[in-house]
């Protein structure tokens, strides 16, 4: 995919470390020729991000709290001062109190429900609103990350499943709103992956093993596969793809029950 994104610029939000899905996407995009800017939240994540950003030739990092309008405004003002237009934004941000990602969904607290929805779903809308003016001249692509717990019950995913369902719905509505301006909006839905965020889910190892054993391809998603999908969506090859939830899960989503040998 060399040069598929040559001449394109974009923002990556949500890199936690080198095993992050956002980093897999960033690395693939850089290899395809894109220029990248990054956001992080807090000094700890910033120190982890800096060497990664530098490894793909980026010196643009900005601290952002997606629950703070002023913080988002400042970030996009800085981005606009650096680049008058951008071609893509990758939103890879989600959060829930880890203590509520075990046990019963019935016990979700009001406070954590609101907080999870704000960070995991509503923030994509706020990001889209601010990215919109920077994409008016040439169009662009917004993408986010979701998971099959949005439409099927996954043990211990709990409130994150509801938040991801809202995120997927927001993706479709944003695609309709922004389509006339040449802006595409999509979500990528990988299977379970060994990431910092994934490790917060109760029983993550069992979920990963179950998918690895039962998916039609008998494999979980890789960072490279997810990155390649993001490159396609941001490239001119994805010019007519919008409003989609693209699954990169080895085909696991097609199953009605486990493979025969695991029944």
What's the average pLDDT?
95
Counting DSSP E segments of at least 2 residues, the number of strands comes to 7
Rg, alpha carbons: 18 Å
Largest sheet: 7 strands, parallel
> What order do the strands of the largest sheet run in, or round the barrel if closed?
3-2-1-4-5-6-7
Cα shape: globular
Low-confidence stretches: none
Distance between the termini: 40 Å
Specify the helix fraction band.
25-40%
- Which strand-content bin applies to the residues? 5-15%
Helix/strand/pairing category: alpha/beta
Q: What pattern of helices and strands is seen along the backbone? A: EHEHEHEHEHEHHE
Count helical runs: 7
Give an account of the 3D structure:
- There is one protein chain.
- With 263 residues, the chain is α/β, with parallel strands linked by helices.
- It contains 7 helices and 7 strands; from the N terminus they run E-H-E-H-E-H-E-H-E-H-E-H-H-E.
- It has a 7-stranded parallel sheet, sandwiched between helices.
- Helix 5 links the parallel strand 5 and strand 6.
- 45% of the residues are buried.
Topology, pairings included?
Blueprint lengths: L8 E5 L7 H11 L3 E6 L2 H13 L5 E3 L5 H14 L5 E4 L18 H22 L8 E6 L13 H20 L4 E8 L13 H11 L8 H12 L10 E4 L15
Parallel strand pairs: 1-2, 1-4, 2-3, 4-5, 5-6, 6-7
Please describe the structure with a list of short key phrases separated by commas or semicolons:
263 residues; alpha/beta; seven-stranded parallel β-sheet; 7 strands
């Amino acid at each position: 995919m060399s040069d598929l994104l040559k001449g394109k610029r974009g923002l990556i939000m949500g890199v936690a470390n080198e095993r992050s899905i956002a980093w897999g996407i960033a690395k693939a995009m850089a290899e395809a020729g894109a220029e990248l800017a990054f956001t992080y939240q807090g000094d700890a994540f910033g120190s982890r991000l800096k060497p990664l950003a530098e490894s793909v030739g980026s010196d643009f990092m900005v601290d952002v709290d997606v629950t703070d309008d002023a913080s988002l405004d400042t970030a996009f003002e800085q981005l606009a001062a650096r680049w008058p237009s951008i071609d893509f934004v990758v939103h890879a941000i989600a959060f829930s109190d880890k203590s509520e990602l075990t046990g019963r969904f019935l016990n979700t607290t009001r406070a954590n429900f609101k907080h999870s929805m704000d960070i995991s779903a509503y923030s994509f809308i706020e990001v889209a609103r601010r990215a919109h003016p920077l994409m008016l001249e040439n169009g662009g692509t917004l993408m986010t990350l979701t998971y099959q717990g949005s439409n099927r019950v996954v043990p211990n995913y709990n409130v994150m499943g509801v938040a991801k369902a809202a995120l997927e719905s927001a993706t479709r509505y944003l695609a309709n709103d922004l389509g006339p301006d040449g802006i595409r909006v999509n979500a990528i839905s990988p299977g379970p992956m060994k990431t910092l965020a994934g490790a917060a889910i109760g029983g993550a190892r069992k979920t990963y093993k179950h998918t690895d054993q039962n998916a039609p391809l008998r494999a979980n998603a890789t960072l490279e596969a997810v990155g390649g999908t993001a490159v396609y969506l941001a490239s001119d090859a994805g010019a007519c793809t919008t409003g989609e939830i693209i699954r990169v899960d080895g085909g696991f989503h097609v199953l009605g029950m486990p493979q025969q040998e695991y029944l």
